[in-house]
Amino acid sequence: MTTKKPKYDVPSLKTGIQILEHLSHHPGGRVLTDIAAALDCPVSSAYRIAMALEDMGLVSRDPETKQIRMTTKLLLIGQRAITETNLVEHALDIMRELRDRVVDTVLIGVREGTEIIVLDETIGTRMFCFVSKLGYRIGISCSSPGKAILAFLPEKEREEIIASIKFIRYNERTITSKERLRRELADVVKNGYAFDDSEQFEGIYCIGAPIFDRSGYPVSSVWVTGLMMDVDRQHIPEIGAVVRAHADRISARLGFGGKNK
């Protein structure tokens, strides 16, 4: 009796997963020939698939020893999947309380590459208020949630992201250089919140703060947004403190108990 072959069989994908599983048992790394021997596959196939995994950021290769190691990308993907499942659930009631305090719309989002993706929102109570599409993407360097997350990332990861940003000038307030962005991120760490001074959308402000998981990693951001004409600039630090306090409550629900400031 012959075994029925799966309808959808992708050998390269299977080999890629096997390589990752194999490397997970060898944190110090393995050379390509050892990986191919362990998986009983041609070296040429292992090389091609390993290079694809490297291009995706899932493995790295030491230029001197040629050792191939897993990166932390899969771990971060898994952490984010687990976190996002509970993130909105943990955050919505706190977001509504924040909305009631600040009147304007409150949103929550996560980072993907150099963008922030809107996950959910609580609509402001003003006659004219800001409403966003769920799933909408905004730039990380010209938005308060983006800057709030970026400022608290590990230095190496933060610099890698900064290096990959394609700065677009939307108006005279838009951050268009790495140096200026780094200065602003230092202020975000100092103040505990980030401010978007209509840097992408004219007449719209945002004030955001990071949300941390149990390890202290900034997995998300919560922010308030509305019409600039409705905000007294002298009250921005006060609003920022309120946003940060509510973000900290969400972080606590995710298991974070430390201070990142």
What report would you give on this structure?
- The structure is a single chain.
- The protein has a six-stranded antiparallel β-sheet. A two-stranded antiparallel sheet has the order 1-2.
- The protein folds into two domains: 11-70, Orthogonal Bundle (Arc Repressor Mutant, subunit A), CATH 1.10.10; 75-253, GAF domain (Beta-Lactamase, 2-Layer Sandwich).
- The chain has eight helices and eight strands, in the order H-H-H-E-E-H-E-E-E-H-H-H-E-E-E-H.
- The model has no long low-confidence stretch (mean pLDDT 88).
- By secondary structure, it is α+β, with helices and mostly antiparallel strands.
- The longest helix is centred in the middle third of the chain and has 30 residues, at 73-102.
- The chain is 44% helix and 18% strand.
Label this structure with key terms.
Beta-Lactamase, 18% strand, 44% helix, alpha+beta, 261 residues, two-stranded antiparallel ribbon, 2 domains, Arc Repressor Mutant, subunit A, elongated, 8 helices
